[in-house]
């Protein structure tokens, strides 16, 4: 629709922005993140998994990769079937097949996202022990204990998300309907229930409230401790300096995580009319979809930026990466 001055209508502009965010920005950020995490995993394996920090980072990288793939698959299904109303041209069986695929993406999206958003808490605890109890660190934080804790956390969240996955359904309405009502009646929705609401609030509280707040306070305490230790930097041993470099890298990862959590939490303080998403009972506006997708992009940036953080903050990681990359290029040449 054209405006009075012959230009594009505001809603058309917003819809174009939303389309660019969904089909260009989000996949680009995610693709770069997947490639970066692959490089990160290669470097961490090269360094070895004898350090608890490497174990945390490799699990984080794998969770981030699975999340980026699952989120984009889920979002593209919603975009094509709902926003573009492709359901009008598909059979019931095809829609059901898409629904199964969507459920799979939904499960891995939310389970791996929860792992990614709670793992920084474990990283913070590990660094607090390393900074405040350096002499006892290797006795308290062993490789075996680290693997057990990480795997227990992953299994807990993966098991936790099985139940909500069964509450997804595809509603189909008969008769001629306009685009607005189509958004309400032809979409993937969650069936609300007391148990499901409790689980949902618990999940959000752990991932988006407890974990970022604890991580923020932990990072602040560690930063103050490191600032105090800078006075004694000249008397540091090589081992202590290495520990400080690792701490700086992990703190940087946590800071990026905290910033993206703040961006994603902004919708809590905005009016409901603005932040309604595809899972509400009314047709969301283009502005609300843009805000929702912007929060999703922040999540993708959180899962895509770790490799850049490693390269920028850790010289040893950077050297191993250059070594692997140069070796790969030599093999390509030969």
From TrEMBL:
PROSITE patterns: G_PROTEIN_RECEP_F1_2 (PS50262). GO terms for molecular function: G protein-coupled receptor activity. One of its GO terms (cellular component) is membrane. It is found in: Membrane. Keywords: Membrane, Transmembrane, Transmembrane helix. Residues 36-310 form the G-protein coupled receptors family 1 profile domain. The chain crosses the membrane at residues 20-45, 57-78, 98-125, 146-166, 202-226, 247-270, 290-312. PANTHER family: FMRFAMIDE RECEPTOR-RELATED, G-PROTEIN COUPLED RECEPTORS FAMILY 1 PROFILE DOMAIN-CONTAINING PROTEIN. This is G-protein coupled receptors family 1 profile domain-containing protein.
């Amino acid at each position: 629709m054209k405006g009075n001055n012959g230009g594009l209508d505001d809603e058309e502009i917003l819809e174009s922005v939303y389309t660019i965010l969904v089909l260009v920005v989000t996949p680009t950020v995610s693709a770069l993140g997947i490639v970066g995490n692959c490089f990160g995993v290669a470097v961490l394996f090269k360094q070895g998994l004898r350090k608890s920090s490497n174990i945390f980072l490799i699990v984080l990288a794998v969770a981030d990769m699975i999340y980026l793939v699952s989120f984009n698959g889920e979002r593209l299904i919603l975009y094509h079937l709902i926003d573009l109303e492709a359901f009008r041209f598909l059979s019931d069986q095809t829609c059901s097949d898409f629904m199964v695929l969507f459920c799979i993406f939904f499960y891995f999206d939310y389970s791996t996202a929860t792992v990614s958003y709670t793992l920084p808490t474990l990283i913070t605890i590990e660094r607090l022990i390393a900074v405040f109890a350096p002499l006892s660190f290797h006795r308290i934080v062993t490789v075996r204990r680290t693997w057990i804790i990480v795997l227990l956390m992953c299994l807990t969240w993966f098991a936790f998300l099985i139940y909500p996955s069964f509450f997804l359904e595809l509603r189909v309405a008969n008769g001629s309907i306009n685009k607005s009502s189509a958004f309400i009646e032809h979409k993937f929705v969650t069936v609300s229930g007391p148990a499901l609401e409790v689980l949902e609030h618990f999940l959000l509280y752990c991932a988006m409230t407890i974990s970022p707040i604890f991580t923020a306070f932990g990072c602040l305490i560690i930063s103050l401790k490191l600032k105090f230790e800078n006075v004694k930097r000249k008397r540091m041993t090589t081992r202590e300096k290495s520990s400080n470099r690792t701490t700086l890298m992990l703190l940087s990862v946590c800071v990026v995580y905290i910033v993206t959590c703040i961006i994603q939490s902004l919708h809590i303080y905005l009016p409901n009319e603005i932040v309604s998403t595809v899972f509400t009972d009314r047709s969301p506006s283009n502005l609300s979809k843009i805000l929702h997708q912007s929060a999703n992009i922040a999540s993708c940036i959180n899962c895509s930026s770790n490799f850049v953080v490693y390269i920028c903050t850790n010289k040893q990681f950077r050297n191993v990466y250059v070594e692997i990359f140069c070796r790969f290029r030599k093999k390509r040449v030969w």
